[in-house]
Each structure stands twice: as structure tokens, then as C-alpha cells.
Amino acid sequence: MENHSSLRLRRFLKKRQDLFLKTGKVSHRFKNINILPYLPRNAGQALNNKFINMKFILAKKIGMTTIHKEDGTAENVTLLEARDNIVTQVRNEEKDGYRAIQLGYKRNSAKKGREYLNKSEFKNAETELKEKEAVTLEQFQEGDKVEATGTSKAKGFQGVVKKWGFAGSPASHGHRHDLRAPGSIGGMYPQKVFKGKKMAGRMGGKQKTVKNLEVVLVDNENKLLALKGAVPGNNKSIVKIYSSRR
Fold it and tell me: What pTM, to 2 d.p., does this model score?
């Protein structure tokens, strides 16, 4: 008969099985319990494959364009330039408490202390790469599914109509200078403003991840990568590209 902790663990893993397969981590409450009997048969192998076969690179966003295929179909893609990706640090569980690969995107001008335009870590990446080694686009193939993480375009301080999609007030009689106003925020009842209320404020400029993007083109000669769809960030910004964990 299962004890209370084991039963809770089984329910926990049933709800968070996808998260476990992504990270390999279990809640601290169950650290002292053998979790193997409660996992699916192929969980360990699936987990190892996701880490060992993980593809990752840093790329500079060029912009969007259209690629015409041989069958006549057109694909709207985002072009990314992936040059000079250098491993700057390798983290492991013994020394750092977690495993990760830190990549640096090299600048054109090599000033001392400013050799890299951007540095970013790819956690849970299982690889034999060592420091100062280069990472190239050869690992990617057309049809691969990847995720892209970047900083979205900053749009400054915006009102509720643009930021949240509010409809605004009717444009009929009696609504002068009130077309884009937010309306009541809770002055009469409940006589306070609830936390998280949608109001005017800064828009954009946050880290965003787009999942399940398809690799349409890999140009190793020109160091170009084309992803189907939009990728967050301004042109010339650095974007993290890594294999999808779905």
C-alpha cells in the first residue's frame, strides 16, 4: 500500500510529466523518494535524448523576407545570421550545481574586455564542447523545430487601447475627449484598484520566447538561418535559437 508521500508524488508527476521531461527536476518535497517506479518506461531515455541531442546557437536578426520553394509555394521567414559563436564557459553539476553551455557572439572589433556582443547560457545542454570552441549552423537541418528567445521591441509608454486592445468609448454624442480613456478602475466599488489591473504603461522590451518554429533554410556558406514566422526583437538584436523541447 502506498504511503501518503508516494501517492502525492504519483499525482504530482502525472500533472507535471511534461515539465519533468524538459528539465529533469522534481519538487524538493520528493527528493528523498525513489521516483523511478512512478515514471513512464521510456522517461529516462527520452530525457537523455532531449539533452544530448539539443541544438543551440546565438544569431543576429536581419529581418523578414519571403522564400519561394521549388513547388511554387511561398514561405514568410525571418533571416538570422549566426557567425562567430564561441563557447565561453562550460558549467557542470559538480562545480556550479547545474549543467549549461555559455555561448558568446563575437564582435567585429576585438577590443579587450569587449570581445563579445552578447553572452547567453543554454541550460541542460549535454555536449562534449570545450571552452574557445566554435559552434556552427551545421547542426541544424531543414524541417527542424526550434525555439527562439529574444527581447521584444520596446514601444515606450502606451495607453490601454494600444497595449491591451481596449475598444475605447463610443464615438457618439457625449463622449468628447473620451475615445481612448481606460474607464472606471474601481473608484466607487471596491474602492481600490486590484493588483494586475490592465492600465496604461510601458509596452514591450521584455524577454519573449516563440516555440515550434520550423527551419526553412540553412546556408552554411553565408552563415544564414531562415525560420518560418516571426522572431521577437529588433533587427540586429541577438536571439537565442535552440531545439524545441516539445
Answer: 0.73
